[in-house]
Design brief:
The chain is an alpha/beta fold and about 600 residues long. It has 20 helices and 10 strands. The radius of gyration is 35 Å and the shape is elongated.
Length: about 600
Amino acid sequence: MMRMFRIDPYASAQGSPPQALGRFYHWCLRGSFPIIALGLFASMLAGSMEVLSSLLLGLVVDSAVESLPDQVFAENVFLLIFAVLFFLLARPIAFGCSSAVSSTLVLPIVSAQVLSRLHRHTLDQSVTFFDDDFAGRISQKQLQASRAVADTVMEVINVVAFALASLVGSMALLLYIDIRVALALAVWLAIYIILIRWFLPRIRMQSASRAGARSLLSGQIVDTLSNIRTVKMFAHHRHEDRAALDAMENFRQKAVGFGKVASSFRFCLMLLSGILPVLLVGGALWLWSIGVATAGDIAATGSVAIRIAQMSGWVSFTLMAVYSNVGEAEDGMKTLAFPHQMPDNPNAVELPELAGNITFRKVTFLYGNRLGGLNDVNLEVMPGEHIGLVGESGAGKSTLASLLMRLYDPESGIITIDGHDLRKVTQESLRRQISMVTQETSMFNRSVLENIAYGLPDATRDEVIEATRKAHAHEFVLDLRDPMGRKGYEAYLGERGVRLSGGQRQRIALARAVLKNAPILVLDEATSELDSTVEASIQRALLSVMEGKTVIAIAHRLSTIIRMNRIVVLHKGRIVEEGSYHELLAMHGHFASHWDEQVGGFIALEEFA
């Protein structure tokens, strides 16, 4: 029995989240249904206690009326003892168990399960998914949808199940008193259900609209704060303030629309709730006046009427919250519940240790447009060969590197490494064997040690320090100190490495790549942020790092790639020239033209000669 409730909240879900709301909830909650069922049972048990309270009240009143005042306790001792035990033990235990199951089992497990599944699914999305949206908005949708699903479950357990048990028990009690009183309750319930069915879909629609406006507002604020340096450099405080105010006004209008529907619903509900005690108690009094009902029946009916009237408001606002949560979950579903655009092939294999033979055959990738990217590219890089990629901005250099990392799939053509089609190997096994350093280096708001060890999580501290030395970063790392007083390798770098200069971030990224020590090394403008003196020392360090590896180096600064075995020139997505540094200069083509435009090229030429 206990094994049934041992649920792993972090177990992976099967497949992608569906885009139909009911199936989306099922995908989120699958695996936790046993504890949800336990929560429903405990809540319904607590709800039934309310009906028993009214029944006991009626029995006690009838017993008191039928007994002489001085004989009440003597003649009804067992009933009174049972009532005392019920109110002091049974009822508190039932409510306590219901609360414990909900707060210590259901909520913690369901919340963790839903959020972990949505987060894991989002992490596996392709780069394109993140390119097309705000990072802040995506994270907001994860939190919003997981909270909405968990809150829906809790409200159904704590309120809907409780109220349903109370209503069913109340109907049974009223049928026991007189079918006419039960019919009056049935008519009232029918009107109540009609009211709910009319208002709640409108509340759900307004809630989804409000949630969408809230997430857009959150995305706008996060986007501004994430780029605060750019905002300040361009003195665009007013522009960003205006954009934020527009998003706030949109959210305010949606909130007002939601408020209008909610207030109308509350007025109608309070009016209907006031009718019920008049209807039921009046009916019981009439039955008593004609000798059909007892005084205890009036007390029991009055207790039931007041409880249902109070509960109707509670239930209605809970159902409003449920519909609101369903609307927010639906809104989150529309953002997150998309199949992965680049999943691993079902028969994908782990890539074995590589020699580093890279082949592009008739590869075209234009980002879905007619311009940009690569167009019919053929390229082979031999194991251990070092090639440089040059060309104007937009020529396709970074696209080639992204395709090699399989951040995108070619629209046509094939890419292989050691004869393995990249689409037939697992993405993780591919990326484990490629080290890449980009111009816009990514840093986490974690310690220096953790940021560098990201290249090889199992590395020792000594290995991290050695890699940092090779990247000429050790000296400045020792001088780092964050606002919390942490120093050196324990210092935190701030969001996206904000506490480092561009050159320092690149050296940390180089240290990460050195530590990873993969057979293929891709350098995408890896030294663009370094000054000439530091770059020269880094270039010398890279010569030893690149030894025995297949290297693809992308550079606008042509002086950084003159020692490559071969230079490949891209122009408008096509390879237009290939050869050594001397061969390309002798062609007097694109490379020679780029070289002549760079003043530093002549100095580097003399040094190289």
